[in-house]
Amino acid sequence: MSYSVEISRNNPTAFLFAIDRSGSMSEVTPEGMSKAQMLSDVMNRLFSELILKCAKSEGTRNYFEIGVIGYDTTIGIVNPLTGALAQEWLNPISLFETNPLRLEERRKKIPDGAGGIIETTVKFPVWFDPIAEGGTPMCSALQIAYDVLNYWCATHPNAYPPLFVHITDGQSTDGDPEELAQKIHQLSTNDGNVLVFNIHLSSKGGKEVIMPSSVYGLPDSYAEKLFRMSSYLPSVMATMARREGIEDISSESRCFAYNVKDLATLVALLDIGTRAAMDVVAMDR
Predict the structure, then answer these.
(1) What is Dmax (Cα atoms) for the chain?
(2) Which pLDDT belongs to residue 158?
(3) For 227-255, how does the pLDDT look when each residue is reduced to its tens digit (9 = 90+)?
(4) d(CA 43, CA 252)
(5) Is 196:161 a contact under the CB 8 Å cutoff?
(6) Which of 256, 229, 222 is nearest to 241 (CA)?
(7) 120: Cβ–Cβ under 8 A, 6 or more apart, which residues?
(8) What is the pLDDT at residue 205?
(9) How many Å apart are CA 67 and CA 166, to the nearest integer?
């Protein structure tokens, strides 16, 4: 387990996201928005932050290739991005900068410099909108992910390993996804295996479980399955998780979270995964 090779414009890494867009994603979170809307906002914010991290005076450096797989049974397995980003499953980060779906105006609270808070309007780029309909063809989505990442690893053998993040709130309706998830994890570059994250936006309630080291405390066999479908947490990510205040991180902890309910936790989890890659970016190149 390495995850230490330098990331550069000539040797980028990849982030691939698979997002559940089934009907149950219309359920409302404690923050008053649907799961689908929460996930869309977080993903759009993540893209913006990654663009900023790659921005230099001469333009955005292509340290990352990024892709999204959306899945439901009404529309099917799709790339939910549009325009130039819809042509390939993975695209360089610079193409995201120039191809948002639209810019929205949103209100944001910021410090006023005198101990108070003021509200201002900011431009918020949107790359895709929330959808929640149909069933959960998870196996079909994971097969696409396997095909995409298998090709990427074969054509980038010396790269920092890709990060695959699967976000779902329900059970698969087209078979058992566990074997496919294990196949994805077995893909590798010379620097290590693909990292497989599973984030469960559960509707059952109960305790939030973040990066556990065993199935103890998980409520059912499906949560246990998602746990087994997840990679062991690399040491660099374990260090970041502890800094975020996530307790009980050990060498057996998995890249898995159950019963994620709010925006802040989802943002923190995605940040841990992507920030680990940023730490080995060759920023001077």
Answers:
(1) 57
(2) 96
(3) 999 999 998 888 888 888 887 899 899 99
(4) 28
(5) no
(6) 256
(7) 107, 108, 109, 110
(8) 63
(9) 12
> Rounded distance, CA 247 to CA 101, Å?
38
Q: Is 44 helix (H, G, I), strand (E, B) or coil?
A: helix
Query: Which amino acid belongs to residue 157?
Result: P
- Measured between alpha carbons, how far is 226 from 177 in angstroms, rounded to an integer? 9
- Parallel/antiparallel/unpaired status of strands 256-258 and 195-200: parallel
Amino acid identity, position 126:
V
Global pTM exceeds 0.90? yes
Tell me the pLDDT of the chain averaged across its residues.
90
Taken in order 200, 249, 17, 153, the sign of the CA dihedral is negative
Burial class of residue 132 in the structure, from the number of CB atoms within 10 Å of its CB (0-12 exposed, 13-18 middle, 19+ buried): buried
At 3-55, the pLDDT tens digits run 889 999 999 999 999 999 999 999 988 778 899 999 999 999 999 989 998 99
How far is 67 from 41, CA to CA, in rounded Å?
16
Q: How far apart are CA 96 and CA 43, in angstroms?
A: 12
Kindly report, residue by residue over 142-201, the tens digit of the pLDDT: 999 999 999 999 999 999 999 999 999 888 999 999 999 999 999 999 999 999 999 998
Angle at CA 176, nearest 5°, toward 160 and 151?
30
How far, in Å, CA of 134 to CA of 74, rounded?
5
In the block, residue with structure tokens 């994890």: 185
Single-letter code of the amino acid located at 73 = T
Task: Name the 3-class secondary structure at 77.
Answer: strand
CA distance 83 to 157: 29
| Pick from 44, 19, 42, 39: nearest CA to 99 | 44
Could you identify the residue written with the tokens 């910021």? 110
- b/e for 244-257, b at 16 or more Cβ within 10 A? eebeebeeebbbbb
